[in-house]
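Data deposition worksheet. Section B asks for the primary sequence of the deposited chain exactly as it was used as input, without tags or linkers unless they were present during the calculation. Section C holds the resulting structure in token form. Section D is free text for depositor observations; keep each observation to a single sentence. Incomplete worksheets are returned to the depositor.
Section A, Depositor: J.P.
Section B:
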Amino acid sequence: MNYLREMNAFVDWLETNPLDAMTQVLWFHLMAINNKCNWPEWFAVANLTLQAKLGADKKTIIKQRNVLVQKQLIAYKNQGREAGRYKMLSVSARMGGNIPPNMPPNKGLTEDIGGNIPPQCPPTLEPILEPIREPNLVPLYKLNKTKTKLKDIYTIFQHWNTQQVCSHDKLTPRQQELIKARLDEGCPVEELLAAIDNYAAVVHGDQYYWTHKWRLEEFLLRGLDKFKTASDPRTNFLKDKSKAPAPAQGGADKYADYVNRDVAYDDL
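Section C:
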């Protein structure tokens, strides 16, 4: 498949087949990813990767993907918990492969338009757009950094639910965004887990005056700093300060095994 020819054909196709801007952007990103992967027939991309590229939520990605499938611009295979697999369908081929008389062919042209090259076309003059090769791009969801970040997000979410303060059936995009923001700010996973433990101990403990139960997103926005171990919440919220507990033993190290364990999570 020729990258530049497909891009031009898609723009021409849009003149008589209008699409929403978000749908167009998704097609362009998928074509770019296919190019970077060196044009395999099928390539895998996680929803999380596309969400980051488009700045959209999962439902939007699925909706726009379905439009591209219905328009026969792509083919898609659901892989369950694995990243979905995509196949780009040639736009230039479906438009009949018509080449303007003044447009010279380039390498790979016979593959793209079924070999219909007008005999009057001059020799190759058009520059060839070489695919950008990067290591470990297929499937993209296996990039270590992305996988580690997603695992950390789910670790924090699941730990929150184990404290039975205000449990959630499913991690929401807003909760995911706020957890990621805290991690990006430099707050270690272990410190987040310790803050959750401190909050749960205060809410459930009769010796504390704090009784308000936040949802996870409220805790991340309004309560995290108050309940970090460095803020000493297990003393600050005591009804009787003379009964302050001894400093906790183990510190962040006690969460090491919890953070490093395997976490089962779905592709977002």
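Section D:
Residues 104 and 123 are 7 Å apart (CA to CA).
Confidence is low (pLDDT under 50) at residues 98-138, 140-144.
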